Predict the 3D structure of the following.
Amino acid sequence: MRKSIRRIGGAVAATAVAGGVMVAAAAPAQASFVTPVYGMTCDTGYNSSYRAWGVCWAPIPAKWKLRVDCTFGGTYDTIWHYPPQNEWYRIDHHVSCNIGVNSVHVVEGT
């Protein structure tokens, strides 16, 4: 009987993992943080010194933008965005950080 329970439990766990992988693959990015004002689930990054990005999912209507800090000075902000709630929304930001990017932040408006 215990062997049967272990086998069933293993099959359920394998199915849950496989299902989780499929769900994660459907999302545009895995969340790395939750914002304090709107509770958005977000991830940010950059592909080069000239392109930064942010992607967020907002449970309520939100107002946000990206701020990119360059390695040797300079800060670049996008315009404010008002994405629909309960949807993933991505901002691509073309910047001129000639030497490199220090950080990419989500700035929430009120």
